[in-house]
Design goal:
The chain contains 17 helices and no strands. The protein has 407 residues and is mostly helical. Helix 1 runs parallel beside helix 3 (47-64), helix 3 packs antiparallel against helix 13 and helix 6 (95-115) runs parallel beside helix 13.
Length: 407
C-alpha cells in the first residue's frame, strides 16, 4: 500500500476512534495515546502512522464531545461551558440544531486555522518569537482574564467567593491520583460536578420536547469562529493551560448571550486548540497535551523552518481527513440521539444521565473521583443559588494556574 493510502487509512481510523472517545463521557484521546504507545513495540515501521492515527483521533474528539454534553450533561474541559446553553436548546426542541452549530463551527475553525497557519508560525516562532513574550507574561494574562470575569459580574462579591472556592477546590482535587483501572485526569469528575450535575438537578421538570429535525435557517458568525481560533491558538502554545482556559478567554473577550453563539464560540475554540497544539509541536518542539507527548515519543520531530515539509505536511493532511469525516459523523450521531431523546421521560433522562456520569467517574477515577464529583456538585449548586455566572467556576483551573505562575 502506498504511503498516501496508509495516511488516509490511519487518519480515517483515527477519526472513528475519536468518535468513540467523544461520545463516551470521561474517555479521552489521551487514553488512546497511552494504549498506542504500549502497542507500538509489537509492530514495525508504523510509528508515523500510529502518530497520524492519534492526531486524527484528537481532532475528531473535539467534534463529537458536544453530543454527551448536550444530551447527557456530561462535560469535559473542552465542553464544560457549553453544557448549560446546549441543554437549554434541548429543552426548546433544538438539540439537533445545537449539534449542527457545533459541528459546523468546528469545521470552519479548521479552515480558519489553515488560513492563519503561516502567519501564526511566523509570529510564534522565527522571526518574531511572540511565544517567549506570552510565556513570560502568562500569569498576568490569566490574572486579567480572572479579573474581567469577576468584575463584569452583576454580583462581584458572590462571584469572587465562588471563584476562590472553586479555585481552592481545584488546588486539592487536581492533585488526587486517579483509579488504577484506567488512568484518567480528575478534571472530568470536577467539571461534571461543577457544570453537568447542577444543570440536571435544577432543570425544570417536564417532558423532553420533540426535537426539531427540519432545516432551520441560521448562520455562524465570523466573530465567534475567529475569536475561538485566536483564543485556542494563544493558549495551545503555553504549558499547563488547557482548552478550558482557552474557552474562558474567548468568553471573556467576546460577550455572548444567545445559546447558539456560545456553542459556536466554544466549539471553534475546542477544535482550534488541538490544531495549534499540533502546530506547537513542530514550530516550538513543545508538547502541550497528552496526544502531543505521545506523538513526540513516536517520531523524530523536524522543527518548522519556513517550509511545511514531511512529516508536518502529513499531519496536516490527517487533520483535513479527520475534520471532513468528523463533521458528517457528528451530524449523523447527533441526529440519531435527537430523534430518540424525546421518547424518554425527563425524570428518567436525569436519572440515566447521572447514573452514566457516576459510573464513568468510578471507572476512570474510583472512589476519589466520586468524592471530587460530590464536592464539585455542591459548589456548582451553590453557584446557581447565589445567581453567579457559571463561567466563574473556571476558577477550578485558573486559581491553581495563577499560583503556579506567581509563586
Amino acid at each position: 500500500m502506498s504511503e498516501f493510502l496508509m495516511v488516509v487509512a490511519f487518519s480515517a481510523m483515527g477519526a472513528l476512534v475519536g468518535l468513540l472517545t467523544g461520545i463516551i463521557p470521561g474517555l479521552h484521546t489521551n487514553n488512546i495515546a497511552i494504549l498506542m504507545l504500549f502497542l507500538l513495540p509489537l509492530f514495525h515501521n508504523v510509528n508515523l502512522y500510529f502518530a497520524l492515527f492519534i492526531v486524527s483521533a484528537a481532532i475528531s474528539h473535539t467534534f463529537h464531545d458536544i453530543i454527551p454534553s448536550t444530551f447527557i450533561g456530561a462535560p469535559e474541559d473542552d465542553t464544560a461551558l457549553a453544557v448549560l446553553p446546549a441543554h437549554s436548546m434541548v429543552m426548546k426542541g433544538e438539540g439537533y440544531r445545537a449539534i449542527e452549530i457545533s459541528a459546523l463551527s468546528s469545521f470552519l475553525s479548521i479552515l480558519v486555522c489553515f488560513l492563519l497557519l503561516l502567519p501564526f508560525c511566523f509570529l510564534m516562532g522565527e522571526p518574531f518569537n511572540l511565544y517567549s513574550v506570552l510565556e513570560e507574561n502568562m500569569g498576568w494574562i490569566l490574572l486579567s482574564i480572572s479579573l474581567i470575569m469577576i468584575l463584569t459580574s452583576p454580583r462581584i462579591f458572590h462571584s469572587l467567593f465562588i471563584f476562590l472556592l472553586s479555585g481552592i477546590f481545584g488546588i486539592f482535587a487536581l492533585d488526587i491520583p486517579s483509579s488504577f483501572l484506567i488512568p484518567s485526569s480528575p478534571l472530568f469528575p470536577a467539571l461534571a460536578g461543577l457544570f453537568g450535575a447542577p444543570t440536571l438537578l435544577t432543570a425544570k421538570k417536564g417532558s423532553i420536547p420533540e426535537q426539531k429535525m427540519d432545516e432551520v435557517k441560521w448562520r455562524i458568525r465570523k466573530r465567534d469562529v475567529g475569536g475561538g481560533v485566536i483564543s485556542g491558538g494563544l493558549v495551545s502554545m503555553l504549558p499547563g493551560v488547557s482548552s478550558a482556559v482557552a474557552a474562558t478567554l474567548a468568553m471573556a473577550a467576546i460577550k455572548e448571550e444567545r445559546d447558539d453563539e456560545v456553542i459556536s464560540l466554544l466549539s471553534a475554540t475546542n477544535t482550534a486548540t488541538n490544531f495549534f497544539v499540533l502546530v506547537a509541536l513542530f514550530v516550538l518542539l513543545k508538547a502541550r497535551s497528552g496526544f502531543a507527548i505521545a506523538v513526540e515519543k513516536m517520531i523524530h520531530l523536524k522543527k518548522w523552518s519556513g517550509m511545511i515539509a514531511e512529516p508536518f505536511n502529513l499531519f496536516l493532511m490527517a487533520v483535513i481527513i479527520s475534520a471532513f469525516i468528523s463533521y458528517y459523523t457528528t451530524l449523523f450521531m447527533g441526529k440519531m440521539v435527537a430523534k430518540n431523546i424525546s421518547r424518554i421521560s425527563y425524570s428518567s433522562l436525569i436519572k440515566i444521565s447521572l447514573t452514566i456520569i457516576i459510573f464513568m467517574i468510578f471507572i476512570f477515577n474510583g472512589f476519589s473521583g466520586l468524592l471530587i464529583f460530590a464536592t464539585a456538585t455542591f459548589i456548582g449548586l451553590l453557584c446557581l443559588e447565589m445567581k453567579v455566572r457559571r463561567s466563574i467556576c473556571m476558577g477550578v483551573l485558573l486559581l491553581p494556574l495563577l499560583i503556579k505562575y506567581f509563586l
